[in-house]
Amino acid sequence: MMKTSANILRSTVSVSTNQCDADCKGNSLPPLLGGEQEMSSQQRILTQCDLPLDALLSVTPISYQDYIKQGGYQGFEKAIHTLKSTGVHAIVEQSGLRGRGGAGFPTAKKWSFVLSQKSEIRYLCCNGAEDEPGTFKDRYLLRSNPHQLVEGAALAAFAIGAKEGYLYINGGFTEEIQFLEKALDEARAHGYLGRPLNGSKTGIDLYIAKSPGTYIAGEETALLSVIEGGLAKPKQKPPYYPAIHGLYGKPTVVNNLETICNLPHIVRNGADWYKRIGAGSGTMIFSLTGDIHNEGLYELPIGTSLSQLIETGSPQAKVKAVFPGGPSNAILPGDQINLPLDFDSLKAAGSALGTGAVIVFSEKSCMVKAAITYTGFFARESCGQCPPCYLGLENLTKILQKIDAGKGEVDDIKQIEQLCGMIKGRGYCYLLTGAVLALESILRYFREEFVTHIQEQKCPF
Ligand SMILES: Cc1cc2nc3c(=O)[nH]c(=O)nc-3n(C[C@H](O)[C@H](O)[C@H](O)COP(=O)(O)O)c2cc1C
Ligand code: SF4
C-alpha cells in the first residue's frame, strides 16, 4: 500500500467530538486563490469544508439528526413517493453526472445497461476500495458524512430495481466502517432501509463488504469476486461486464463512493440545480499532494483551473510536473498546467481527470525516481494473472532502477519504449495500461533526464 503523503499514514487517530465543520475551522486551508472563483456555499455539494490531509483522521461524522436538519433523506422520500425509479433515473440522466471512480463514465448510461437486462434480481455495489496513491476523497466522505452515502446508495439501488446493495469499503478503514455501521443501523431504525417501500412488499437493504485493502481490489470485477468470497482478481471483459455478468451472475451496477454521494443532492434539488455548478458537471473532491505546503482535500467545481489549485497548495519550489488525475494517467509538464480541471480538457491534453488525485512534482524532483516509484507500485500491485502485466512491469522497473543507479546504457531508453508498446492494453484490466501511460508520459516530457542519468552514470539530483 502506498500513498504519496507519509503524514496520513503516520497520523494518530484522535477522534474529536466536533463535527466536520467544527474540525475544519480548526484546521483550515487557504481559500482558493484568485478571488472570483473562490468557493461559495452553492458551489459545494459533498463536504462542508476543505481539509488539510493531516486532519483527515480526526474528522468525525455529522450526526443523523444534523443530516436530517440539512435536508437528509428528503431525496429518498421524494424518490419513493413521487419520482419512482424511472424519475430518479431521468433526473440523474439530465444532470449529466459522470463517475468519479476513474473513467468518468456517465452514471445514468451505466444504469441503463443494467435496466435493459431481463432479470428479477439486480445488485448495486458501491466502490469504496480506495487505495490509489494520492487518493483520499472517499475516505473523507465516509468519515464526514456516512448518511450521505447510505442515502445515495439507497437511491441508486431504488433506481435500478436492486433490493440489495453492497457498500464495499477498504478493509483498512476500520473506524470509517464503524461510522458506516452506525449510520446503517440508524437508517434501518428510521425506516429507510430493510422495510417495505411505499406499498410494495419489499424494501432495500445495504450491507458492508470489506476489500482486502489492495489497489487491484478496487477494479470492478475484482470487487465482485471479493464480495462473492473469492480472490481480488479481475476478469476478462468481454464477457464479464458487471452490467451483464455481475454479482452472483446477475446484472450489477458498480459505482464509485463519491459518485453515489452526489445522488441525494441531485434528486432533492433537481438536475437544473446541479447543472448550474461546475460548468454543468458538479464538483469533485481533489486530493492535492506532493511537493506543496498545503496538502489537502479540496471540493471544487469541475472546471476550476489546475494551476490555481496548485497555487493554493503553495508549491515548495517551481513546479516541474503534475499528475492531474492520479498516477494511472499521463503526467503533464509544469508549463502545461494552465488548464481547467474537467473531463474533456484533460483528455484533450492527453491525460484524464481520473480520481482527482493531483500530485505535484517540484523542479527538485528526479523524474527517473518518480517513474520507479509508480511503475514499481503497479508492478507490486499486479494480481499476476497476465504475463505482459507482471513480467512487463517488473522488467520496466528493473531497467529504471538500473538507470537510476548510474548503470544505464544508451539502448535502455529504446528498450523501455519498445516494452511499453508491446505490453500496453494486453491485460485483463486497466492497471497495466494505466501504468504504461504514466511511464510513457514521464519519458516523453523528461527524456533529457533519462539521457543525463545514462551519460553521467549517476542521478544528477
Ligand atoms: C486497478 C484498478 C483499481 C481501481 N480501483 C478503484 C477504486 O478503488 N475505487 C473506484 O471507485 N474505482 C476503482 N476502479 C474503477 C472501477 O473498476 C470502476 O470503474 C468504478 O468503480 C466505477 O465507478 P464510477 O462509474 O462511479 O466511476 C479501479 C480500476 C482499476 C483498473
Ligand atoms: S492486467 Fe495486471 S492487474 Fe489486471 S488482471 Fe492482468 S495481471 Fe492482474
What's a concise summary of this model?
This protein has helices at residues 6-10, 20-26, 64-69, 74-95, 107-115, 137-144, 146-160, 174-189, 220-227, 257-261, 263-269, 271-275, 306-312, 343-348, 367-381, 387-404, 411-423, 430-445, 447-456; strands at 51-52, 123-128, 164-170, 205-211, 252-256, 283-290, 296-301, 319-323, 332-333, 357-362.
Number of helices: 19
CATH class of the domain at 61-274: Alpha Beta
Measure the end-to-end span. Answer: 26 Å
How would you name the CATH homologous superfamily of the domain at 61-274? NADH-ubiquinone oxidoreductase 51kDa subunit
Class by helix and strand content?
Answer: alpha/beta
The dominant shape is globular
Side-by-side strand order of the widest sheet: 1-7-6-10-8-9
Describe the structure.
The protein has 461 residues and is of the alpha/beta class. Among the domains are: 61-274, Rossmann fold (3-Layer(aba) Sandwich); 367-456, NADH-ubiquinone oxidoreductase 51kDa subunit, iron-sulphur binding domain (de novo design (two linked rop proteins)). The protein has helices spanning 6-10, 20-26, 64-69, 74-95, 107-115, 137-144, 146-160, 174-189, 220-227, 257-261, 263-269, 271-275, 306-312, 343-348, 367-381, 387-404, 411-423, 430-445, 447-456; strands at 51-52, 123-128, 164-170, 205-211, 252-256, 283-290, 296-301, 319-323, 332-333, 357-362. Strand 3, helix 8 and strand 4 form a beta-alpha-beta unit. Helix 4 (74-95) crosses helix 5 (107-115), helix 4 (74-95) packs across helix 11 (263-269) and helix 15 packs antiparallel against helix 18. The radius of gyration is 22 Å and the shape is globular. Residues 216, 234, 382-386, 389-390, 427-429, 431-432 line the site of iron/sulfur cluster.
